[in-house]
Design goal:
By secondary structure, this protein is of the alpha/beta class. The chain folds into 3 domains: about 100 residues, NAD(P)-binding Rossmann-like Domain (Rossmann fold); about 35 residues, 2-Layer Sandwich (Double Stranded RNA Binding Domain), CATH 3.30.160; about 40 residues. It contains 7 helices and 7 strands. The longest helix has 20 residues. It is globular and about 55 Å long.
């Protein structure tokens, strides 16, 4: 598979119709992310996790307990396919979405996607997206776990402080360079320090590569 260079963007999905195909853990995770954006989410799957059913019972999503039908894509702005076991379905969904210019992401199937959902670190209002261009989804997932230790509850409280300060300053000062400078000063002394410990197998491989280069 050819590795692609993707364009990173944050989509405004508020009140936009979105479709999730599948009802397992991956569908639950992606549905939760869509709910956070304020999207109007429909899930199509014969089965569903308890959380998906709870969201449906609460009216947060619509759940059709059946297999996908072509009409499900009518009027949809963005679709997420979490079914990996049906290659024909993935191809059908992709071709239909391409034809009607609908965004489609198929879980772990970049060849049947026109966008990919990145690993996401959540910390209060903060979102940190991690993408490897399909090179190593496992790396993106590992980095997400590591960064969640850095961006903890204390950092979420700091972000809320910044949100309050922004609202206060917007009420006191007109928009312009002076207000922008005060806002920048709130984070000017922030520092994030980290150290990377590489896997021993990688370190050994790199050492051998260096030795061969010197010998050659």
């Amino acid at each position: 598979m050819r590795m692609k260079h993707y364009f990173q963007a944050s989509l405004d999905l508020e009140d936009r119709p979105c479709l999730v195909i599948g009802g397992g853990a991956e569908a639950e995770e992606k549905t939760g992310r869509l709910i956070e954006t304020g999207a109007r989410v429909t899930v199509v799957s014969p089965d569903a996790t308890p959380q998906l059913r709870a969201w449906a019972d609460a009216g947060a999503i619509v759940h059709h307990p059946r297999r996908y039908e072509p009409a499900d894509l009518d009027g949809v702005y963005l679709a997420v396919n979490t079914v990996k076991s049906d290659a024909a379905l993935s191809r059908q969904l992709y071709e239909r979405c391409e034809a009607q210019r609908t965004l489609i992401s198929a879980y772990d199937q970049p060849e049947d996607s026109n966008f990919v959902m990145v690993a996401l670190v959540r910390c209060g209002r903060l979102r940190v997206a991690l993408a490897t261009g399909g090179t190593s989804p496992a790396l993106a997932s590992t980095l997400r776990v590591e960064l969640e230790r850095v961006f903890d509850d204390a950092f979420a409280t700091f972000v809320e402080h910044l949100a309050r300060e922004r609202l206060r300053l917007e009420a006191l000062m007109p928009k312009g360079p002076e207000r922008s400078e005060v806002l920048r000063s709130l984070v000017r002394d922030l520092r994030v320090r980290a150290a990377i410990e590489y896997p021993p197998s990688y370190v050994a491989d790199e050492n051998q590569r260096a030795e061969r280069a010197v010998a050659g």
